[in-house]
Amino acid sequence: ERVHPPGVRVLVCSDGHVFADLIGVTDEDVDAYVDALRGMIRAEGLSRIGTFDLRDVFGDLSSSRKRELLDEGFAPAMEQLRAEVRSDEHTLALYRGITRFLVEDTVSFTGTRSALQKQCRERAYGVIQRSRAWGNLVAREHPQALRLSIHPQPRGATKFGIRLLDAPDTWTTPWHSVVLRHPDGRVELMPHHQARARGELVEVDGCPDHYRADPLAS
Question: What is the pLDDT of residues 45-69, one digit of tens each?
């Protein structure tokens, strides 16, 4: 705002309900997350930050019905995606990255690892399809916005990829990992089990917030 009088407004487009059924998260947990995020924005008086999710488009319909409408109105055909994975290097890398994340993030599967990998490969196609649908919806609702993403983006994409914190690779994001704060103040993202092994849990307002690294472990 000091540089350009109109300033800038950041809109956090929360996609929890978009992917909840594909990644094993309940819609109730998604609602709690977004409500907490909105509460933080109000408590801090962050007038330049807002939120946007499926509720802003489809109102009070059930989450499953909202996903159905999202798929019907905005998702590409699955056959198109499968062909793109076979022919496009970036889409193939995306598919493999999502598959790996789903395998690592699934904790309640009782079958064999090969069965889990097969299931996650199918779910990865669903995640890509739903991601495209969500992107198309956001583009329709906010056509003039400069879109940012926590995931890596190829040159020429409609979104700019940004890295929020240090991490071992570009696919590690705050949504898929936890924060470890080092004694020197440095903050790093890593899988939960690694952070738990290297530090102690710190709670803020009764909720898990981050891990504080043991100086001897860092």
Answer: 998 999 999 999 999 999 999 999 9
Contact 63, 17 (CB under 8 A): yes
Which three-class secondary structure string do you get for 73-103?
HHCCCHHHHHHHHHHCHHHHHHHHHHHHHHH
Q: Give the whole-angstrom CA distance, residue 159 versus residue 155.
A: 9
Give the rounded distance of the alpha carbon of 61 from its chain centre. 23
pLDDT tens-digit readout, 159-188: 999 888 888 887 788 877 899 999 999 999
Rounded Cα gap, residues 22 and 18, in angstroms: 9
Quote the CA–CA distance of 153 and 157 in Å, as a whole number: 6
The CB density around residue 22, as the number of other CB atoms within 10 Å, is 19
Q: What distance in Å separates the CA atoms of residue 128 and residue 113, rounded to the nearest whole number?
A: 22
Partners of 180 in the beta sheet? 188, 211
Closest CA to 15 of 133, 167, 124: 133
Q: What are phi and psi of 35, to 5 degrees?
A: -65, -40
Of 162, 138, 140, 139, nearest to 149 by C-alpha is 162
Q: Over pLDDT 90: what percentage of the chain?
A: 66
Q: Can you give the pTM of this predicted structure?
A: 0.84
Residue recorded with tokens 């710190």: 202
Alpha-carbon distance 58 to 171, whole Å? 30
